[in-house]
Amino acid sequence: MKKKRLIAASLTLLFAATACGSTTYEATQIPVKQTPPVSTPAPPAKQDCTNPLQSYAPDPGPLSAPGAMPTGSTMAKIQAHGRLVAGISADSLNLGSRNPISGKIEGFDIDMIRAVAEAIFGDENKVELRVISSPQRLPVLKAPRTPGAVDIVARNMTINCARWKEIAFSAEYYRSGQKLLVRSDMKAETLAQLSGQKVCAPAGSTSLDNMIKANPKVVPVTADTDTGCLVLFQQGKVVAITGDDTVLAGEAAQDPYARITKAPAFSAEPYGLGMNPAQVDFVKFVNKVLEEMKADGRWKASYDKWLGPSLEVPAVPPAPVYGR
Amino acid sequence: MTQTTSAPPPPATWSPPAPQAAPPGRQAPASRTAPKLGPIAAWFDGTPGRMRALLIALAVVAVLFGAAAAQGFRSSDGALQRAEDNTAQLVRIQSIHTNLVSANADATNSFLVGGLEPPAQRQHFVDSMTTAARLVSEAATAQPADQKALGELNSTLLTYQGLIEQARANNRQGLPIGSQYLKDANATLQADSLPLLDALVKANENRINTEFNGVGRGNAWLLLGGAVTLVVLVLGLIWLARRTHRYVNVPIAAAAVLVLLTVVIGGASLSSAANAAKDTQDQAYANTLALSRARIAAYDAKSNESLTLIARGSGTAFQDAWVKSAKDVDDQLAIGGTTNRTLQDTWSAYKAVHVQIREDDDKGRWDDAVTKAIGSGKATSNATFTTFDKASNEQLDELSETTQSELSDARDGLPPIGWLGLPIGILAALLIAWGVSQRLEEYR
What we know:
The complex is a heterodimer of chains A (324) and B (444).
Chain A: H1 2-18, E1 54-55, H2 74-81, E2 84-88, E3 91-92, E4 96-98, E5 105-106, H3 108-121, E6 127-131, H4 137-142, E7 152-154, H5 161-164, E8 168-169, E9 174-183, E10 198-202, H6 206-214, E11 219-223, H7 226-234, E12 240-244, H8 245-254, E13 258-260, E14 268-271, E15 274-275, H9 280-296, H10 298-306, H11 308-311, E16 321-322
Parallel strand pairs in A: 1-16, 2-6, 2-7, 10-11, 10-12
Antiparallel strand pairs in A: 3-4, 4-5, 7-15, 8-15, 9-12, 9-13, 9-14
Helix pairs in contact in A: 3-9
Chain B: H1 28-33, H2 39-43, H3 46-113, H4 119-142, H5 147-172, H6 177-214, H7 218-244, H8 250-310, H9 316-336, H10 341-362, H11 366-374, H12 381-412, H13 417-441
Helix pairs in contact in B: 3-4, 3-6, 3-7, 3-8, 3-12, 3-13, 4-5, 5-6, 7-8, 8-9, 8-12, 8-13, 10-11, 10-12
């Protein structure tokens, strides 16, 4: 018995010593996914000025002829550069979006840019459309004025006091208002009915500030662009989107299961073209262009083409306010 | 008649009951005369007993040597086999990586075109994704340790492909939201899929290096086992020579020679296999690795070229990424050595086109830049890149085949000591038994 056990034991030992042929490896380590820190939206910026809509009054007299900008002016520099560099959105349907079929970026905001280019060059195509996101709007305008820097931003930007401290605005070119977009099967009409639910607004936008002001109990979710919100909405990650009626109209047009609620706009969003605060001559020039557009019907034509059909409100060009 | 009542002469055949005559199993009388000794102790008693102990000790050492030799060979053989398997796995993983970045380059490039994708590009995208999916399941079967990470990768690919298809569906309808889905898809690939692939590549590279280093380790078993065995056998021979006054016990000496031969032949062949493995590691394998890295970086650059254009002027980050990837390609191609001359030329041709694209875009001629980026004519980004892709793919296939066959040759060159080791040990043990029992005979 003992012998048998001894033999068995030594055989086991032998096999153990020789049977190292099959090595098992440690499992491949799965990289730890860095979850982005939960972004708590910055508190709404203080709005402490009397009338943010006040811009710089254009100089009296007609505009200089296209292609002959006054020497030393910002417009002359743009003319020398050969094209107007504009920061725009490429995914806000009807405001500034890339037409996937033609590849061209088009919309109401883009028409404003082209009008400015027309006034400087006599050619509305001398523009370089630079796609930027919502949070990039102010930084690109504050960047040093090197050749190729963004001259003007037309990206459904609301004029307000806080932004006036960093950039300069043209006179108001459109009066929008913030609304709510929900799933077509939802009964909610206002933000107040969405406490505890996830609602999306673009990061760094006034829509986000207004939403938190309107109902602090909604769970804010941000995306880089308005369309980013629509993707989250389609993926069921948020139940509603809040934003300017112009933007929401474009989004609802892309998704038949989205509905803009009938509640009236809960904020006024006056749109202005953003420019560098030091280039006041350019702001005055742009204001003159806008005045002419509103007067000669180009503004209305553009509105009727892009915004009229989906907003179903008659076009009234906002009157400019000057005095800054 | 004189009665001689003397005791009758003992018959010639008579013999006293001597212990020698009794079969070893019937040692009962001895134990009876010396009751303090157990049967086993008695067997090891006196000089013959010590000889028996020597026999057992030497035989055990000889068998253990056989086992050690077998173990040494199996460990080297196993290391070579595993190096081969792991290299195949690494090539597989890098092929998954290449297919994914290539699919992504197609997707981003066709986005510049719009909803109406070129059918060939679409087909290439589908093929790349299919190949990647097939390779993922192959890789999971080949290396169980990679299964979890590959499973994770698979789920990110599902997300990626889903987003791409949604982007296409929306693009096809002319809805701008398609671009957002494409952006999200690209982000999923970059942030979720590629880190997993990097982890897989790193893990497999580590495994390969471990195995390459392990090829020479089998020699330690053989040399250590051989040295100990030879010392023990020589000591045994000396001890026997002193007890028996004979110089050399021939069978035991033969066993020692057998052990020595095994050590010399086995050691030499193991060293040469280890050297062959080192050569492969330094050349064919290093080149395979460099070229697949170059290809991955190249596809990454291609995607970034499209993304720079899609970003329309705010794509500085993508262009910076292009510059970094392109430098990686240059560096890795340089590692590949002189054989890559033509490959470097095709890559330079693509780079030249990219420089033109950047110049157009930077000077505000975005449409011209896009035409060069999405066209299929001779001096377009797609055409020059395809040339590089084809050439580098062919060369990569060759290199990885060379690596595999070199490792397999090194393994085939090993003598079959992995299997013969134990029989050799047993043979030596039998020789020892024979040698000692010759001396034991003299005590019968």
